[in-house]
């Protein structure tokens, strides 16, 4: 099976993950937003990869400014996930302290 097909098929389990995560009552909103931002990363990476191939005749990984710009969306997504869960942990710890 070609890698492009596997890449496309991998979106379905991820969408399922997002659906289940959206139903979970304990998921921090900012963390969930970060996981959703991963789809933005994918949406940006695909046209950037096509542009790199058509204009430069190279893969996206070999066109630094495009690759860096696309990867910045993944970095932002990761930051949102970390901050969201970090805030949730801090809130939980604060509520435990208040209950004592």
Pick out its properties:
mainly alpha; 0% strand; 100 residues; 3 helices
Give a description of the structure.
The protein is an all-alpha fold. The chain has one domain. The N and C termini lie far apart (57 Å). The relative contact order is 0.13. The model has no long low-confidence stretch (mean pLDDT 92).
What is the N-to-C order of secondary-structure elements (H for helix, E for strand)? HHH
Structural class: mainly alpha
The percentage of residues in β strands lies in under 5%
* Contiguous uncertain segments of 5+ residues: none
> How helix-rich are the residues, as a percent range?
over 70%
Shape: elongated
Distance between the termini: 57 Å
Round the Cα radius of gyration to an integer and report it. 18 Å
Rounded average pLDDT: 92
The domain tally reads: 1
- Supply the number of helical segments: 3
- Could you describe the largest sheet, including whether it forms a barrel? none
* Tally of DSSP β-strands: 0
């Amino acid at each position: 099976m070609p890698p492009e097909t596997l890449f496309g098929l991998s979106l379905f389990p991820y969408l399922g993950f997002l659906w289940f995560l959206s139903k979970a009552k304990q998921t921090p909103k900012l963390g969930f937003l970060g996981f959703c931002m991963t789809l933005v990363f994918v949406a940006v990476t695909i046209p950037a990869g096509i542009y790199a191939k058509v204009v430069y005749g190279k893969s996206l990984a070999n066109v630094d400014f495009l690759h860096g710009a696309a990867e910045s969306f993944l970095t932002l997504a990761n930051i949102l996930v970390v901050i969201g869960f970090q805030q949730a942990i801090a809130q939980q710890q604060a509520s435990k302290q208040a209950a004592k």
